[in-house]
Amino acid sequence: MKKVLFVLTNHEDLGDTGMKTGFWIEEFAAPYYLLKDKGIEITLASPKGGQPPIDPKSNEPDFQTPATIRFNDDKETQEILSKTIKLETVNQADYDAVFYPGGHGVVWDLAEDENSIALIEDFYNNNKPVAAVCHAPAIFKNTKNTDGTSLVNGKKVTGFTNGEEEAVQLTSVVPFLVEDMLKSNGGIYTKKADWSPYAVEDGLLITGQNPASSELVAELLLEKLK
To answer: Rounded to an integer, what distance in angstroms lies between the CA atom of residue 198 and that of residue 193?
Structure first.
């Protein structure tokens, strides 16, 4: 049985707006169920362990999908989610791939988290896929190749667009823009129209543009694991 590690944000404050953030339910639930239903064993981790914060906005009626509805009725998965393991205890040798769901929280903690950075580099250097969707490609801000260049340098990538960030009115709230960061790190950044499903694969890196791209990323990851 193939094993995939999911890494979730623990960050819940939306800058200094007084509002809350966290991970985006659809970006966790859609890939989780797609992989789980195919017999993939999934382990959940976060920097601090325990219950990761859910972005309250992702619970709103407008953002419900079959996967989020299933999650909201799924006490067993909610229980597993409440007990994520600490990132520092994770060893890439125990898994076949790693997946990062997005949500604005990621740009604050996982983008800078030393355990996460080391883990991604470890997965990559051991020829294992690293997948991320929406804001989660923020995890590539500080990841490096063995020669010191950025991990995304010269690689095809996507992630939450500047236009999408502008649309949710958080351009001046987030510490950096995912699109700009990927470009400045040498990534070959492409995108589709705002909110369109879009995912890109380049070698071991699989990235998706926005919440609607979550399942596409999981499908590409599933193919990779075969």
So the answer is: 9
pLDDT for 202 equals: 98
Spatial separation of the C-alpha atoms in residues 131 and 101, rounded to whole Å: 9
Q: What percent of the chain has pLDDT over 70?
A: 100
- Give the closest residue to 27 by CA, choosing from 199, 188, 176: 199
Strands 188-189 and 85-86 turn out to be unpaired
> Which tokens sit at 105?
């929280």
Q: How many CB atoms lie within 10 A of CB 150?
A: 19
Please tell me the predicted confidence (pLDDT) of residue 192.
98
Per-residue pLDDT tens over the stretch 193-206: 999 999 999 999 99
Q: Kindly state the percentage of the chain with pLDDT values over 90.
A: 100
Beta strand 205-208 with 199-202: parallel, antiparallel or unpaired?
A: antiparallel
Among candidate residues 1, 12, 6, 3, the one with its CA nearest the CA of residue 80? 6
Q: What would the mean pLDDT of 156-174 be, rounded to a whole number?
A: 98
- Beta strand extents in the chain (DSSP E only): 3-7, 41-46, 85-86, 97-100, 130-133, 156-157, 188-189, 199-202, 205-208
- Selection from 186, 191, 224, 192 nearest residue 205 by Cα: 224
CA distances from 1 to 37, 76, 226 (A): 12, 20, 11
